[in-house]
Protein: Glycosyltransferase family 4 protein
Organism: Aquincola agrisoli
Amino acid sequence: MNILYINHYAGSPSLGMEYRPYYLAREWVRLGHEVQLLAASQSHVRARQPEGVGRAPRDERIDGIAYRWYPTPAYQGNGLGRVRNIASFLWQVWRDGPRLARGFRPDVVIASSTYPMDIWVARRIARLAGAVLVYEVHDLWPLSPIELAGMSKWHPFALVCQAAEDAGYRDADVVVSMLPKVHGHMAAHGLDLARLAIVPNGISPDDWPAPGEPGTPLRDDVAQALAAARAAGRTVVGYAGSMGLPNALDTLLDAVPQAGPGLHFVLVGDGHERARLAQRVAAEGLHNVTMLPPIPKAQIPTFLQALDIAYIGWQHMPIYRFGIAANKLMDYLMAGCAVLHSVEAGNDPVAEAGCGLTVPPEDAGAVAQGLRRLAALPPGERAAMGERGRAFVQSQHTYPVLARRFLAAVSHGGALAMHARAPRDA
């Protein structure tokens, strides 16, 4: 098949997040399909932006995937600059639609840009090409900005998002959701649930060393921090990922004095809250906390496999009733970590896999108690938890598995659409 994949924020291993479009597309290419990825030249989630994009779109091939970068204005934050960036990308893809339909001749068109407005340009191209239309849902917009950022449901941006979301549920042949508990919400907005498939986030086995093989060596400062904690006889608790408010790292720091002196915390990453969190560590004299800059993606497996316990936390937010799909959690499980999960959500992969403990969110006492419980376990018992987590990911959350599941949903949805469009006998 020819698969046209529209994802404003698509990245690659060399550019950074977002990774899901790259990994799915790479698996589809390996299965013999042709994938054309459409993305913007400027994205706030990438570590760096694609080079050589001038005033016209630039085509590039990465690991067999055809990327087309559309030039969009740089921006910061979630204000008018981001709106202009989104509008520029959508307008260029809309204008390019007839050429893409005639030249690439897609069999499948996927709208997948986190925000829902790309469904309109995807729908146009799919209709021109006679292709199966897929609406891939990362987060529920406009519900996410309404519940997480306090946006009014009558805000013009929220109204536009709502119209686009409703169009996706109404017009797509297939709706693919990363969140597992969305059935009621989507049905209430007009989706026939026969067209819904759940395809969560996952990991790529290619990014992980084979059993018994050494991983990518750690940067010196990270290796030294881990070695010093080990030499002091500490149980090492680690975190790797973004440092923003949704990641509940304040709760972890609040738990540090209660967790006891036998633990050392190594936090690796970057984000809007990193400087403030580092100031907290210094001001409160948290000498058993080491904060370090982000490490390359290739070093993440090595770092995680060196931990005794991995922490992931969430804020207490109603939006999580629809489920969670954190990339870092899949990494934690693939690394064989015993996980302390601080969350209240519609799903809980840690509990499903039996690979750690789950405690309430934003509760420092519960986090401290959970860490003490995990630290008190014999190393062999924590290792058994980790093995259960790894087995869970390998069976259900690797991209070779997820890519096939996605295509099976496309095939099923396409068959339903053909049946619905077929003329009825008198």
